[in-house]
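RETRY 2/3 - previous attempt timed out on the joint model. Re-submitting the same 799-residue input unchanged.
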Amino acid sequence: MNKKKELSLALIGNPNTGKSTLFNLLTGLKQKTANYPGVTVEKRIGRFDIKDHAIHLTDLPGCYSLSPESPDELVAAKALYGDLEDVKKPDGFIVAVDSTNLRRNLFLATQLLESKIPVIVVLTMWDVAKKIGTTIDLEKLSQLLKTRVTPMEAHTGEGLSELIEAIDQMISEQLVADPNNYFPEIDEAVKFFSETLDPENTLSRIEIMRALIDQNGYAEQRLESKLNLASNQQLEDIRHRFFDQESLFIKESRSRYKKINAIVKQVEQRNPIHRTWVEKITNFIDQPVIGLVLFIAVLALVFQAVFSWATPMMEGIDILASKSSLWLKSILEPTAFRSLLTDGVIAGVGSVVIFLPQILILFCFIIVLEDSGYLSRTAFIMEKIMRNFGLSGKSVIPLISSFACAVPGIMATRVIPEPKARLITILSAPFMTCSARLPVYALLIGAFIPDTYYMNGWINLKGLVLLGLYFLGIFGGIFTALIMKTFLPAETSSNFIIELFPYRTPNLKSMLIKLYDRALIFLKRAGTVIFLVAILIWALAYFPRPIEIKNQFDIERDLVAAVADAKEKTAQIIQINQEEKAAYLEHSWLGQMGKSLAPVFKPLGWDWKVTAAFIGGIPAREVVIAALGTIYAIGDATTSESLLQDKLKNAFWDDGKPIFTLPMTLGLLVFYAFCLQCFATIAIIRRETNSWRWPIIAWTYMTSLSYLAALITHRLVSLII
Amino acid sequence: MTIKRLDTLLPGESGYIHKIKASEEIKHRLSSLGFLPGEKITFIRHALTGDPIEIKIMGYALGIRRDEANKIEVTPIT
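RETRY 2/3 succeeded.
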């Protein structure tokens, strides 16, 4: 087989024009998602073949213009010049242009049509345009833009073969472009620039033109370094020489839109004869009060789905994990290796996979909300309220997601354009009560909060405490947001301009590919961290294993051997084995750490066992239950919660006072409401802020806050009772 | 010819853009979105909290804050 020729294409377009659907349909599952180096902009590269060409398609982030105003747009602009690290300069552009919104979409398209890189214009939402009575003369448009134009339907994917044909044609025509000129007013200045600063003609018209327009921006800086200019003074001089005070940016917009308007007039016919049902629905549900009611209903549905639909699947995974653990124990000798497999590997993998059903359901909802156009409404509705806390309307969905898990929540903060609001959202997200906190709450509330009912049995104290903990989390998030709002430097530019996308039926195939992609990211990010840490914790709890302990318990086992009753004997042996395990733990590194750190937590009423369990849970808070289970020697903690609760109730200090008193338990609950015991979250904060600074600050801050809050709770409750 | 600020229009009212008095940066952003003198703009509604507001320009809907809207001058269409 001969080697295929490599070709690099870039997909670009305004946000929500069906660009990612196009990408997914072209490349299917042959795609990779990563970050562009240094920025948290998603880099998606996919592959597909046309005849003897292997095509690498880069999905550039949605943008409105080539003059970048956000990290997303900067990536798109860099792609034009071939300045993106590890992405080849594109041999051609595919521009997604929304047929229902031709004028604004042509703004970016015509900017690209001024480069020497060939362009294919894909008119997306072709069927939607038809429905609302808009027709576009394809041939005429192609003629006026001097490039290939193909139509594409939104949710059927009809038009894909025409696009592939157009790409094929573009390749066979040697990838030459016929650049247009939509801003002739700048030509003289470009010519002057070329003659005076670039006599060897190393730069193309578009590079010089964009640099002149993009005052103090990326295109200007890159010419400065290319031509070794000391400052932008020479560019400034040219701007003054040829233009008056008004910025070139506005001049460009005016000239471009004038030409676009002339084109659109010739090719587009709008006959809005009747209002479509989509318009009627939009007008109904976008009304202020109805909009709010719908918003709350959507939130309730998401919560309901995440917490109740996922339960059967989660139970299934739990059973699977303990079954395979038991099976391994039955076929392997009790060695360190067996313990590593069952208590390290399976427990570690299980603690990640168990959250997958919830995460998948959550992602499903977010993708549907995104692709249907509803997400922009949630931001619109909540903007004013969130702004009071230094957050953005766009913080709502990330924060809601964090009630399932902070990892996807923090991943979702990418939609927030303002750096400060995004950072505040990232640091508030871990305060939302995630599902991993629930087992901890359930255990402690179940054991120590009295089963009291109020209001004729309508309200249960246990439920009330749980609800209180949820509100405590929200309160912690708001408190943090307010602190950060006060102490962080103000946003350099704060504006809220958000397109309220028309409601649309999403493309199913594209949604499934997106879901697969995001689930994979979650598994990779959270998975590897939690897995590695689970093994580390296992090692800390397993080693060293002094031979004296074994000898001591061997003696006890020998004694039991004399017991006649077989049933009684087995029970005693199990008991001894568990006590042996507890003794090992006490002497393990984890146990020793618990003992040496215990004085620090004494004011909270914790003994060394609770402290050791706390240390075990630092990488993943839900591990604290399994750790308590081992320390209190009850064997497999997951299957015997009530047993663990009994053990906790019967845990005493040396002087006979109970350890788990009401003040201590409430303090512990408050501690777990605030602490950041989750390495996966720390890793995702690191990834999303691109430095170790914020994860370290977040961990230190949340741990101190949880200690303080637990201490205050302990003292206050002690005073009251 | 009266000139009004965009945020003082009533829901459903339209006007032609007269002048945009925002900062350069916002002016740039708005101009690439089609906010240029002479373009027709319609005030659709405001959020329940009164802010932001929804407007329509060139056939698409946009949410902007009152802080930005009050820097856009329009000549109302009666």
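Residues 4-76 of chain B form a domain with the SH3 type barrels. fold (CATH 2.30.30.90). Closing ticket.
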